[in-house]
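The methods section describes the discrete structure representation at length, but only in general terms. An entry of this sort, consisting of the sequence and the corresponding backbone structure tokens, reads as follows:
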Amino acid sequence: MRKANYYTAGIIALLACVNLQAFTQSNSGSTYLFFKPIYAFPSNSGKISENSGTIQGVTYTKGIYGSYGKGICFQVGIGKMINNNFGFELAAEWINGKKIGANVTSDDNNLSADASEKVKAFMLKPMLVLRNSGDLLSFYSKLGLAISAYSKRTADFSITGIANGQNFQVNTSQAEEIKPKVGFTAAFGLSFRVSQTIAITGELNGQMISLPVHKGHYTKYQLNGANMLPGFTTSQSSWIYEKSTSTAPGDPNQLQTRLYEPANFSYIGVSVGVKYFF
């Protein structure tokens, strides 16, 4: 009976060694898919836009500060470990930014102006992966590029006040195109292997990028409830951003020029995700 127990224990130990060796080898040269939601906090905050209201020739302004890179992100991708310590990943990320804004008020003419803006973006992120060779629990870091393949800024403005003794209200919405841009991304995390094919990850993520807003147009312009867009010229309804502007009257059939300001889209985020090895 004792010999049989020794024999059984030996078989179990042998199987454990074989499984551990296969488990370790699966980390080397393995390909995996991954998915993670990220909650992003604004980083590198600064002035990103401006809210203004004009009544009877007087303009009141207030800066909008922060980063458009704030909100929920969803990232999916594929990765491959070349060996136990080195690999690469390609991730696709959709960022649905939270609205940020500012309010301008003045006792003059009872002015009140509210503004809210947000950015939606589709990012591509090729990254290098460096990790330790732990079997069940491993730590890793990533460094790569953040490429804004598609992004769009939208904004809503509401202005109320008194002009020439009459109450008025202006409500506008606008959409702006953003050119592609390349920035940087990095992450630090840990991975816990729960089975041969599944691992749970926790990460601290970050990206550093500013988006070049190119041009925009009004999608809504209402004065006291009346739609004013049909009567607008091209220069009244659309604009393009330039690094310098002119005060000279422009062609009503050409885009209005506005002063260019880069849109900060940096963030630091936290995430919990899953990897599937195959």
